[in-house]
Amino acid sequence: MKLRPDQEIICQWIQPGSRILDLGCGDGTLLRHMMDHHQVEGYGLELDDHNVLSSIENGINVIQSDLDRGLSDYFDSDSFDYVIMSLTLQAMNYPDQLLDEMLRVGKQGIITFPNFGHWRNRLQLLLGGKMPVNRNLPNSWYNTPNIHLCTVDDFETLCAQKGIRILERTVVDRQHREPALLKLAPNLLGEVALYRFERLPYG
Amino acid sequence: MPEQIPQDSIGLVTPQTLHFDQPLELECSTVLPGYTLIYETYGSLNEDASNAVLICHALSGNHHAAGYHSMEDKKPGWWDTAIGPGKTIDTNRFFVVVPNNLGGCNGSTGPTSTNPESGRPYGPDFPFVTVQDWVVSQARLADALGIHQWAAVVGGSLGGMQTLQWSITYPERLRHALIIAAAPKLTAQNIAFNEVARQAIRTDPEFHEGRYIEHNVLPERGLRLARMLGHITYLSDESMGAKFGRELREGHLNYDYGVEFQVESYLRYQADRFVGQFDANTYLLMTKALDYFDPAAAHGDNLSAALSRVSAQFCVLSFTSDWRFSPNRSREMVRALLDNDLKVSYAEITANQGHDAFLMKIPHYLNLFGSYMKRITVGGETS
After folding, report:
1. B179 at interface of A, judged by CB pairs closer than 8 A
2. Does A57 contact chain B (CB < 8 Å)?
3. What average pLDDT does the segment A118-123 reach?
4. Where would a tag sit more exposed on chain A, N or C end, judged by fewer CB atoms within 10 A?
């Protein structure tokens, strides 16, 4: 079970021994890794049958559920230290509501998503006149699960509107490296964006 | 008849019986002075008795869950799809124990047994038994077999309710609980179905206030109706449509009340089979046990509070087309387990077979179930 580079960064961000909820946990690789190496406890939520089976095989606590139904079926407020959602936000029907839900049940949220503002996407649309199809976005417009793509700037605008404080941001390139250049123009050069955030205190 | 026993079958099995002299005080306050449980076991108990799995049966189930009693048997035990060497509940790893519930009609003490006080069959005098009573009686069986802690307790439907009750009554006596197609209590609709079934039996002219055995008759019509009604609720509209549609048995309408549609033929066949092998008083008792089950009731209808002492790990499975014990009911249990920070996995299996899906050979279901069983560690194995 090898971690994706964005998952490796997530592991660096979390405090060992925390309680984690992984939304769209896939085959459970990330949670399994964090349980084995970072002493975390937690649950994975996953909709896909095949992934639910793999998660059970991986020995994690997986709850088969549709994230678009929200989290209120199962979780009280402030149940987790971190609620993680990696490369799943863009496939949600109501990503803005899910962000609220993440910060209702968790103290902090961690999100990763493919940055639609990456120069290659812009170029494909500008010069080719077609919806981008590439490594991070492999599907055609008509069969993509990614119905709510956003850019780094879009995401940060939404966070600002919602009173969400961004604690950490990283954008990585094709090799999931984070060269200095990326920091200068993350929305143009970052292929995958990673955020750790919390709700601003009310008032 | 199995011309030859299939490779993955546990093979020929023989039920065992155990008599308990210790009186059992039931939830209804009646004391059963002594009782017998009939049960089957598959596989062998390991040295530290850490590989025992209890199977709890549903309404019309019994102790014969796997294998064959003789080469003349047409069918294997009721859960042979899931129990056997190399199967979902792998008898090469686990020692599987399947008792027939108290109040049953397959060899455990029940309404057809002789009441020691009167010398007549208990009939309607057999006391009301509850899920909790069954669990206590099963715990005594575990004691007798030298099993202090089950590796897992497993049950579907009413069996799932017993599994949940096990985790509440004896939290330290099971490590894993697998609850399949079950509910934390019946809905009004479910109780209503049970009541219609009971009325069908109790209003049969041959019921004789439950003393039909002494009259040498059986309330066949009532039991047939109860079973037909039950069967309709165990299937789904979709699966009945796929299986029978509007197909006619003779290809044309006869304009009479004989069997015209295939679905009528099926229901009558199921009813026929049932009447010969199941006791009407047992049916009444089992449906009552279903109706009464509600562990949250003693905790202000708060299921999470009812589970506060539970320590087992859970696997909860439901089926999308099950409208008798719908996925929503399983989600209620999952929610209450999560409220208590318990380890739980839950899967909602897409299947059109309705409630009965839990007994069927559905690959994804058996894969999930089997993968969870593989996670259960037992002594003497290197992980």
Report:
1. no
2. yes
3. 92
4. C
